[in-house]
Amino acid sequence: MINLTKLIYWIYPVSHEGNRIWITDTNDLLKGGLMKIIRYTSKGKTGYGIYEVEEGTIRTNEALFGAESFSKMIEMLKTSGETEVELDVDAVRLETPVQPTKNVVCIGKNYYDHILEFDGTSEQVDAAKANPIFFTKAVSSIIGPEDGIDLHEETTSEVDYEGELGVVIGRPCRGVTPEEALEYVFGYTIINDVTARDLQRKHQQWFLGKGLDTFCPVGPYVVTKDEVEDPQDIEVMTKVNGEVRQQASTKLMMHSIASQISVISQGMTLNPGDVLATGTPQGVGMGFKPPRLLKKVTLWKSAFRVSER
User: From the CB of residue 68, how many other CB atoms can be counted at a distance below 10 Å?
Assistant: First the structure.
């Protein structure tokens, strides 16, 4: 891929308190020329706005800021004629940009090389190709860019990162075909599918190991789908302490975003603001020998990029 434009950058700095990793300096990393929907708190109230890159400001109006749900925010984006206000992005607190109605729906083992880094067999690869492996992360695990990840040292000693492309649903979606599926997407974001590997092994089913409080950082903003020509031509990258650990194209997914939405929607309604985590590529901490997991003093970044038009 050439002429890449960074859309989303998510940073976990070296500063921390107790066993919690904190996110700071996010505002300096809100770069790129695409439309970004953010959710923020100002003067004790929380609402939505549009981040203006060049000016470093948030553009909003009374209706948009006051939207009580993600679906209402989408409706308010279309309003015109209201007096707009601008706020300095440095003067507000950034929150998670989404408010899903249900747990985050995730897909496991969606990249061939990620299966192999866990010593996966050809049979496991064939099984993952045949049918997508879905699980969920508790909605209570979602945090924003200025919240901290709790390492839960009393519960786990193997906290790992998984940088992923997140998909945000824009309208009620049920029983759709793969050909229709992307019509129901509002936009794209970044998700860190934080995982306690020891709990994942111990309990076999993945919900507990991936659903602890603070284990689902989302954001800091959502890029609208009209800014992304092809979601299967996006580069996902994760850095730890400045070192690139994960870097792969969404072209390498075994199950495309459209097919994931279609399968999930057969019998399950996806609502505006619901979030899908589309799988992580090779390079997670547990895949190294010896493992290279998240510790208190860790700088973690994830981004996705698309080709310029």
Answer: 10
> In the numeric block, which tokens belong to residue 174?
């049920």
What CA–CA distance (Å, rounded) separates 37 from 11? 18
Q: What is the pTM of this model?
A: 0.87
- Region 4-307: CATH code: 3.90.850.10
Q: Per residue in 159-176, pLDDT tens?
A: 999 999 999 999 999 999
φ, ψ (nearest 5 deg) of residue 73: -60, -45
User: Is the separation of the CB atoms in 98 and 189 below 8 Å?
Assistant: yes
**Alpha carbons 292 and 287: distance in angstroms, whole number:** 8
Higher pLDDT, 10 or 79: 79
For 163-233, strand residue ranges (E) read 163-169, 185-192, 195-196, 216-217, 222-224
Rounded Cα gap, residues 2 and 288, in angstroms = 29
